[in-house]
Predict the structure.
Amino acid sequence: MADLVKKCPECGGQNLSWHREKGEISCKDCGLVIEDKMVDFTQEWREFDSDSGDSKRRTGAPMTYTQFDQGLGTEVGQKGDLLKLGGKNRDKFFRLRKWQYRISTAIERNLKLALAELKRVSSYLKLPKSVEEESARIYTLAVQKGLVRGRSMESVVAGALYAACRRHDVPRTLDELSEASGIEKKEIGRTYRFVTRELGITLLPSNPADYIARFTSALRLSAETQSRSIKILENAQKAELTSGRGPTGIAAAALYVAALINGEKRTQREVADVAGVTEVTIRNRYKELLDELKLEKEIKKVKKKK
DNA sequence: AAGACGAAAGTGGTTGA
DNA sequence: TCAACAACTTTCGTCTT
């Protein structure tokens, strides 16, 4: 990480120091802070015993990403340092401080606004705190990488939230994000893809099963139907019906079939609405499910009971 | 009359030359 | 950069309950 920057852009000196605790790289010659508010992302996977723990662990005081500067603000030059410098250097120092100030306040102002927006959307969707933190982290990274330039702040916020939801296995559909944030669906999708690619965040395609719980309660179906649909999903995955398809469509179809079998019929329209897909998609998935999983018998059984 | 079904044409995004 | 392509949607007509 430290080797990304080898020379000080201001004075050309190579005497850089990396303060891990402060999260910054600065030049020891002229005092310019080159990288600010960096975060050490590498992970130590093991902690051998409680003694080595303290030295391996990289977290210090609690740091939260939902505070706009994470409590890690940096300023160029303290009073004490200035007194040691001669006139010429002192001028330089003031210039640098002004410059740095401008940049950091711009970023911080942006972050402050963005995090307010993020909190608003997050509470609208009733997302857990962990997701909010995660998305704030993603957004902060995006800002530092300059990924927000040319994009609206709101859309990047929405994209970060979407990514964080996926990471925490509490997926919300793009439609829901879109409704909560007022950003167009495709715009969210676009920034989401862009941001995750640029930040190297890899995400598994979301699992249809993660949607089931929410859909079940939205349709007020029984717990049996829910577990039934999850079984159907498992079989569908074995039959390789799930790859390449939209996870919401699969989840919706599985739930629809399960409801049918358990005699809690919902119309395709109802299921389609809560899942955010069309009836047609449900029909297609539904048909595939019947073909591959031999569920016809079970459905007929229910029909006979009538 | 409402829901289920299927065909056909359109949309936005990915992929591979 | 463009064209082919897959998944999904929209729309609409027909069949079933």
